[in-house]
Structures are given as C-alpha cells and as structure tokens.
Amino acid sequence: MDQTDAVDQANSENANTRVGAVTPRPAAAAGPTVPFDLAAVNERIAQESAFVDELLFELGKVVVGQRYMIERLLIGLLGDGHVLLEGVPGLAKTLTVSSLARAIGTDFQRIQFTPDLLPADVLGTLVYNQKEGDFFIKKGPIFSNIILADEINRAPAKVQSALLESMQERQVTIGDETFPLGDPFLVLATQNPIEQEGTYPLPEAQVDRFMLKIKIDYPTREEELQIMRLMARTGEKAGVSEVIDVDRVLSARQVINELYIDDRVMQYMVDLVMATRRPGEHNLQSLEPLILYGSSPRATINLNLASRAHAFLNHRAYVTPEDVRSIAMDVLRHRVAITYEAEAEDMSSDDIVTRILETVEVP
Predict the structure, then answer these.
(1) Count of CB atoms within 10 A of residue 31's CB?
(2) 158 phi, psi to nearest 5 deg
(3) Any long-range contacts for 37-45 (C-beta under 8 Å, 24+ apart)?
(4) What is the pTM of this model?
(5) How far is Cα 70 from Cα 48, in angstroms, rounded to an integer?
C-alpha cells in the first residue's frame, strides 16, 4: 500500500467515527450496509418537529393536564395508526380530539355510537331519487380525516365491524362503488370501562387493529383546580387556532421513516413481543398459565412505528430503548389475552406486560 492509499484509508476510518457519519450494524446476510448520515437527519428532524411544542402549547389552552393522552394521539397521527381511548366520562377525551383536529386544520366528524345505530349511518348508503327515478350515493360521516367514534362499545357487532373494516382497508364500498378514504385517516374511539349494561365489548381480534390502547386517569388536585377556573364559567370559552396544516403532518410522517433504529433496539422490540407468546423462553415461566395468547405481528410493526413517533416528539433522529419502553404498554396491553387463572389471581394484561418489561433484557 503506497502513502496515498494509506492516507485515504485513514481519512475514511476517521470519518466513520465522527458523529453524523454513523453506520448501522448490519444484520446477518442483510446485504451491503447503507451509511446513515445522522447529522443531516438531525437537522431535518429539528425543522420538521418544530411544530410539536407549538401544537402542545395550543392544545394546552383548552385541555388541562392529560399530556399523556395528547402525546399518544399525536403518536397515532404521526404513525398513521388508530387509537382506542378508555376512561370514565368527563376526562376531556372528546374535547381533546376535536381540538386536535382544529389545531391541524383538518376535517373532523364525531359519531355517537348507540345500540340502534346501523352500518349505513356510519358508512353511507344508496338513496332513491323519486324525481329522477334512480339511486344516488350519500356518503356517511366516516368520509373525514379524523373520526371520533364515541363509546364504540355501545354499538352492535355489525356497526363495529363496518367501522373496523374501513380502518383496516382505508376504503368504503357502497353499492357497486368503492371509495378510498382521505389521508390522513385516523379513528379515535372511546369506550367507558365502568358500564356493562347495554354494551357490546369489542372482540380481541378487532381491538388488534388499533395501534394504541390508552387508559386515561383522573387529573391531579392542581389540575382539577385549574380545570374549574378555566371551564366553570358561562359564555364563550377558550378555543384553539390552527397551528399546522395536513401537508405538514404528511411531511412529518415521511421524516419519521428516516429515523435511525439500531439493530439491537429492533431485536429488543421483537423480544418483547415474543415474550408475550412464549414467556418460558424469556425466563417468565410463571406467566405461561396466565397468557391465553400473545401479541400478533401487528404489535411488532406498531411498536416500531410508535417508537419512531415518540422519538420524533422528543426532537431526536434516533430511537432509544426508552422510546420503546415508554410506548410498549400502550401497544401491547390490548394484544395480550389472559386466562381464567390470571383473572382468578387478579392479574390484568397490564400486569403481565409490566412483568415482561421488567424481565426482558434492555440493550
């Protein structure tokens, strides 16, 4: 090797050690490694995620506390996944969803689910025009960007299936015609966990179509006092202004795809999901009689997407194990079915996921 070649090789090695020229660890038999320019992606993330703080501030004008719920809704929006919200009435679920739609300047529809609701009330139907003597299509409220399916467990199975099919296929068929749904298309469904009479629980296989299931708790004492001061008055109340437009959201989605995830972090995601299926292989033998069945491959996909979105909200160009751990409960809790033995021991799916997160080794 002559002197020129030696200098070129040294410069190449030094470049690979600088921040901003990180090369991902190649997977086995994965082909050639593609260099990842962390500095360039960091700069783009800083630009694209600048709206996040402004959006959170704007929503904070009308929604006191509930930072966890707002962030999870943004993760669903950025990760192109639907969200199931569970909580008692009066926790600002509807207010938060409608305010989010106004803040991003997109269409919004609220559907109140009731036992007498029909699929046509959600999707639309063919209407006969007596004057013209033919049928025309009247589209339902699902033809919007953000859908609030309020108390989804109050509607019968036919209505739930019609909504969930549209969520999965991103299209609606009315008569002989099929119509694609808009982009973004986000379903935010709420359900009341304390009332069982007159409700139709969602089947586990259909709940799996939601990216996240979040449980919303009561506000703190300080937040309750702030809520009273803000809302306990007649007349016009505070509202939110449009912060960004739909194009900005779609652009942010593309940037999220560029975030760097180390191979070890991806292996960690797979380990968490596999632990829900074969806990004995992950030193969790005590969970085997408690899990009826584990998470589907949708859990792995959504864990990846949600972790990327979580990193984006924190203005980072890379995903850490803490991003995965922060979002894992919301991705996995509705994808782990428990046995009667678990119920007898007063164990919930949340308890099982917590045990998995405590046991599976973090990279």
Answers:
(1) 7
(2) -60, -40
(3) 38/260, 38/317, 38/318, 41/258, 41/259, 41/260, 41/317, 42/317, 44/255, 44/258, 44/317, 45/255, 45/259, 45/312, 45/315, 45/316, 45/317
(4) 0.82
(5) 19
What would the pLDDT profile of 76-119 be if each residue is shown by its tens digit? 999 999 999 988 887 888 888 888 999 998 889 999 998 899 99
Structural domains of the chain ordered from first start = 60-231+254-258 (3.40.50.300), 260-363 (1.10.8.80)
State the Cα–Cα distance between residues 178 and 120, nearest whole angstrom.
14
- Rounded distance between C-alpha atoms, residue 138 and residue 31, angstroms: 51
DSSP character at residue 232: S
Place of tokens 């999707």: 123
What is the C-alpha to C-alpha distance for residues 363 and 360, in angstroms, rounded to an integer? 10
Q: Mind listing the pLDDT tens digit for each residue in 3-44?
A: 444 444 444 444 443 333 333 433 333 333 444 567 777 788
**Could you tell me which residues come within 8 angstroms of residue 202 by beta carbon, excluding any fewer than 6 positions away?**
152, 153, 160, 191
CB under 8 Å to 10, separation ≥6 — which residues? Answer: none
For 63, the token pair is 């929604």
* Residue 38 CB coordination number (10 Å): 18
74: nearest Cα among 335, 254, 253: 253
In this structure, what token pair is assigned to residue 60? 């904070």
CA atoms of 333 and 331, how far apart (whole Å): 6
